[in-house]
Amino acid sequence: MKKKLILGMTVLFMIIAVIFIACPSDSGGGSADSDDGDEVETTDPNAPIINTDGKEGEAIIQDTDLVLTVTVPNVEDESLLRYQWYWNEVNSNQNGHIILGADKKDYTPPTDVPGILYYYVEVIFPDPDMPHLFSKPIKVEVLPKEEGKIYAQRPQITAQPESKAYLAGTSPDEVEELTLTAILPQPSLASAGTLACQWYKNSEPDKETAEPIGDIVESTNGTIISICKPDISEEGTIYYFAEITNTIPEGENVVEAVGTRSSGFAIISVIVNALPPVITVKPESKLYGTKADFETAVTQNKAALSVTASSPDGEPPHTSGI
Q1: How many other CB atoms sit within 10 Å of the CB of residue 87?
Q2: Residue 312: beta bridge partners?
Q3: Which of 25, 52, 251, 260 has the fewest other C-beta atoms within 10 Å?
Q4: Residue ranges of domains in the chain
Q5: At the top level of CATH, which class does the domain 49-143 belong to?
């Protein structure tokens, strides 16, 4: 009897083990810790896009400030959206670690420890029936800082270009220029050099695929002001931004000769004004009925009236008054 009981329990445990292995739990995006390195493809055209205010794809030096910003295409009012940021050890937007308190459009990751981490964001719409959107991960690589070496300062943006919407047909003279102002935090140090600004534009909020526009503006006094006139000749939305670099001469102790920072997006929208229809032919009023019926109705009205009416049998107009 004992042998049969032990055998039965063994078989039961084997079945449970097989079920557990064959049916692992599905934790979903950003909800648990995992080493799964398979990036989830984001094919939704409205998927959030993360951009950095540094040079896209380049590593940064330890203790360098960095800002990540998410933009959601085809959303007119992003103030209605909610956000949640995650970090991951692998290039995946699934099973990352939630960052407590990181629930804004922008996020500043820590850069005090050298290494590589990946960041992604979850976008939550006000409509509970709308699915949550996850961005692709963005790689942040932090290099160790060597003592006694020179690293070009990253410019500091003091005035960002602003977004604006225009009606189709607006005169180019009424279009406001985009303006950017940037400085070097410590202009007297060897890490300060020549500032340069280049503007870019794109039909989607992606800095990596943007095309340069206009000429490069340079400054050697530690401050730079650059302007750009947006093109509103076509209906739609264009994303503008500027990239500022600080370049110092190469030297024996110079580790990084160029410091880069890019502005946020200035979203320029050109919309068609929905004008009310114009009435070109108005409907005409007409009175039908016999002359006697009309006179009776007027007589019953206590107010003084004077009305002209035509009868349907072709008689001349008749005027009745009280």
Answers
A1: 19
A2: none
A3: 25
A4: 49-143, 150-271, 291-321
A5: mainly beta
